[in-house]
């Protein structure tokens, strides 16, 4: 990771907004593909 944060992946996910947005959009896309 760019900032060399280390630590818990969960903490990183919850504090890194661009990563959180990417994961949310991925989950939405998968849901739409499965249920469409």
Description:
Helices cover 72% and strands 0% of the residues. It contains 2 helices and no strands. The protein is elongated, with a radius of gyration of 13 Å. The protein has 36 residues and is mostly helical. The protein has one domain (9-36).
Which terms would index this structure?
mainly alpha; elongated; 36 residues
SSE diagram, text form:
Blueprint (H helix, E strand, L loop, with lengths): L8 H7 L1 H19 L1
Briefly characterize the structure.
The chain is an all-alpha fold.
Helix content: over 70%
Instruction: Count the domains.
Output: 1
What structural category characterises the helix and strand content? mainly alpha
Per DSSP, what share of the residues sits in E-state strands of 2 or more residues? under 5%
Q: Total strand count, please?
A: 0
- Contiguous low-pLDDT stretches (5 residues minimum) are none
Count the DSSP helices.
2
Average pLDDT confidence is 85
Characterize the overall form. Answer: elongated
Radius of gyration: 13 Å
The span between the termini is: 34 Å
Biggest sheet architecture: none
From N to C, what is the helix and strand string?
A: HH
């Amino acid at each position: 990771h760019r900032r060399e944060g280390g630590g818990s992946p969960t903490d990183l996910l919850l504090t890194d907004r661009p990563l959180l947005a990417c994961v949310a959009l991925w989950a939405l896309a998968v849901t739409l593909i499965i249920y469409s």
